Amino acid sequence: MACTSCSTSDGGAPKGCKNNGTCGTDSCNKLTVFDWLSNMSLSNGEAPFDCVEIRFKNGRKEFYRNTEKLTLSMGDIVATEASPGHDIGIVTLTGELVKIQMKKKGVNHTSKDIFKIYRKASQRDIDVWSAARDKEEPLKVRARELAIQQKLEMKISDIEFQGDGSKATFYYTANDRIDFRLLIKEFAREFSARIEMKQVGLRQEAARLGGIGSCGRELCCSTWLTDFRSVNTSAARYQQLSLNPQKLAGQCGKLKCCLNYELDTYMDALKDFPDFDTKLSTELGDAICQKQDIFKGLMWFAYTNNFANWHVLKIEQVREIIAENKEKRKVASLEDFALEVVVEPQKDFNNAMGQESLTRFDQPKRKKKSNKKRKRENVIVANGNSAPNGNAVNKNPNANPNKNNNPNPNKNPNNPNRNPNNKIVPNQNKPVTENKPVDNKIIPNKNNETKE
Length: 452
What we know:
- The chain is of the alpha+beta class.
- Among the domains are: 130-200, 2-Layer Sandwich (GMP Synthetase, Chain A, domain 3), CATH 3.30.300; 207-268, no CATH class; 279-336, no CATH class; 376-452, no CATH class.
- The chain contains 10 helices and 14 strands.
- A 5-stranded antiparallel β-sheet has the order 2-1-4-3-5. The chain has a 4-stranded antiparallel β-sheet with strand order 9-10-11-12, covered by helices on one side.
């Protein structure tokens, strides 16, 4: 639920109304109540209920009396009575449903202590109210600085200005009692307003600030939860949860309120189970319970002399053994009552088509060629002796001097020690002569061989 001012701006970024759940359209506030009696008309001659529920900052709601007989509907901004001055709030509930809410919260609708509604807020009232709300965040930072200067062990979590800006309420948390008389004087001198200090608990602080829980949803205390019941670690034990403080603690640092949601269901299921401390007597020795499965109705037992082996029993079988032990008779062993643990076959999800392979679209790798070095002798047919340095001398006068005499075109003429595979072969210091390839074989000319 979001109002039109919470839509996205240019570029896709959320614009936001910056009211933190207190927008004027009443569609993104906290602790909302659906008026399911709004479409029902009153009987003839019955006057409508004269009390109205009005919400202020961060879900704070109060009941006011409509003495002026104003026509009010959900979402109207009204000016209400305050001490001193007046306050600005938003109507959240009207009609007969307000009477049910007042009865639920223990408020007497006939009491004379209920404040009244002055009028519907004018544009000037809304401007003053908006200006006061804009000052809250920078003043909270300054208030924390002043509290640190006073060396007070307290945390100022929120500030709420009255609608006319004449009064500021500071909400803080502290472990011990705090003497903040000097701090109030400093606040009044700094902010030029009437100061009121209210201490709240850690859960109330989290409810006012809001946030996202570990489940991924908004905090229950800031959306619909109003009563904070005590939560202890026994709720986690009954539900067989791990006693890890990091997992059991909420944003407020206390145990999560949701530990109590399913506790009654677990307690009803545990009524059919024998006591966890039950000891079974057998001829092989005593056995104690190690684990329970509430959903399947199973219990795991192990002998006191062998805690490594656990035996699974149904709760009916455990009651049968307990009945035998009450008659001072021991059963033979737990193996006679234990269930056979069936090992489920592991499911093989291998796909014969190979579609799960991440490299199925890659090009197949080519096989590497063998790295065997081929040695070749270059024989040059000549009538004279070879050069003293081992290089052949071309005696053919008809040979073209500009023609490359290298028989291998892939071979670098500047480096005669490279083979066709572009690898360096050490020089064997052998005389090189011209050869004539015949049927891919090298036949040296022995007739013109030089004799020494």
